Amino acid sequence: MSEVYAARRARLHEQCTAAGSAAALVSRPANVRYLCGAVPPGAVLLLGPAQDVLVAAEVPSAPPLSSGPPRSDEPRLLVMPGADGDPAVAAADLAAADGAESLAVEEHDLTVARHRALGAAAPRVRLVDLGRAVEQLRLIKDDEEISSLRIAGELADQALGELLESILVGRTERHLALELERRLVDHGADGPAFPTVVAAGPHAGRPGHLPTDRRVEEGDFLTICLGADYRGYRCQVGRTFVIGPSPADWQVELYDAVFAAQRAGREALLPGRAYRDVDRVTRQVLAAAGFGDALEPCTGHGVGLEIDEDPRLTPSAMGKLDACVPVTVEPGVHLPGRGGVRIDDTLVVRPEADGGPELLTITTKELLAL
To answer: Chain-wide mean pLDDT for the chain?
Structure first.
């Protein structure tokens, strides 16, 4: 993988040089990992005019990089002598010592105080905004990244499928969430990709619901959204079920509408399709079914080293889909006091010639009565 990381850093070097900056400081944890692999918490990467340096506050338990003389394509590892220093400030000082006239920084990741500290450490270096250059590089995933996402999806499906075979009535949302997260780890995940959502009854369909001590009851809608973290890559799946022998008519109507909207969104995931168009076709189905007032601001988003990354599938999103971009399609409707439905899949954008969107989460979307 070292060659992969070297190629990524080389592309960023080229972008920085074209923008007129010979040095860049990458501080966002997911971006540092994308460019270097697994690194100690809080480490930053300096792409310097003379050499690249990974600055860390602690020694890695399993060093991804050599601490000796660096290879031509590998950053030097610098471990700070004390635990109180800021690796980003130390990196800015290194850039100044190497003669950098300007330093591109990730302003969207820096606090005001940290930005000021960088300027104080290197007063003769002009700080410019790197913007979301690394996030843009991360948009299109390579085969290794997609393989990790595919496994993460399998782990999430497996944990969810096993839970559905157990008795659910009488158990609390919190208990079920903890069991799902334990099952993820038991099957090989590094952990949950995000706090697991278990929402029963009037909570069902609510995005980002934090599990409570509310118990699952007959007649409830039950929404479960979970994700697995596998080798740093995060994939998610969400489903809604009915508890009891059969769903009520209003539950079937609502579920069918959300399912049709989610299917329309999935089918729209083709290279060249505008982000906002994917959002639009999904919303049109729900609005036509009479649920326009209950629509959420986002239909889906990218996944990878973070569970919520670019691109965003929203009405105002700018840009178009590329092949090999993994995204979620997760429309939901929540009716206050009654509950709701949410259906969530992770897919990889593929051209029609390759079979269209690749579905990474395959748990059935049939309305199951459990």
So the answer is: 94
The letter for the amino acid at 273 is R
Q: Report the alpha-carbon distance of residue 370 to residue 363 in Å, rounded.
A: 15
Distances (CA, A) of 172 to 16, 165, 211, 344, 369: 52, 16, 8, 22, 18
pTM above the 0.70 mark? yes
DSSP 230-280: ETTEEEEEEEEEE-SSS--HHHHHHHHHHHHHHHHHHHT--TT-BHHHHHH
Listed range (52-56, 79-83, 155-159, 238-242) with the worst mean pLDDT:
79-83
The count of residues in the chain is: 370
DSSP 3-state assignment of 344? strand
| CB contact set of 186 (below 8 Å; sequence gap of 6+) | none
Tokens of 266: 């999935």
pLDDT at 67: 43
Q: How do residues 93-111 score in pLDDT, each as one tens digit?
A: 999 999 999 999 999 999 9
Q: What is the pLDDT of residue 72?
A: 60
Q: What are phi and psi of 65, to 5 degrees?
A: -130, 155
| Count of other CB atoms within 10 angstroms of residue 210 | 14
Q: Are 323 and 351 in contact (CB under 8 A)?
A: yes
Report the percentage of the chain scoring pLDDT > 90: 87
Q: Which of 258, 266, 289, 221 is nearest to 358 (CA)?
A: 266
Q: Is 155 within 8 Å of 187 (Cβ atoms)?
A: yes
pLDDT class of 84 with cuts at 50, 70, 90: confident
C-alpha 209/C-alpha 200 separation (Å) is 10
Helix (H) or strand (E) holding 223, with range, is strand 221-230
| Region at 79 (left for phi over 0; alpha for psi -120 to 50; beta for the rest) | beta
Grouping H, G, I as helix, E, B as strand and the rest as coil, residue 188 is coil
3 state SS of 134? helix
What does the buried/exposed string (b/e) look like for 226-245 if buried means 16 or more CB atoms within 10 Å of the residue's CB? bbbbbebbbbbbbbbbbbee
Report the C-alpha dihedral over residues 322, 234, 130, 140, rounded to 10 degrees: -20
Contact criterion met (CB below 8 Å) for 316 and 41 = no
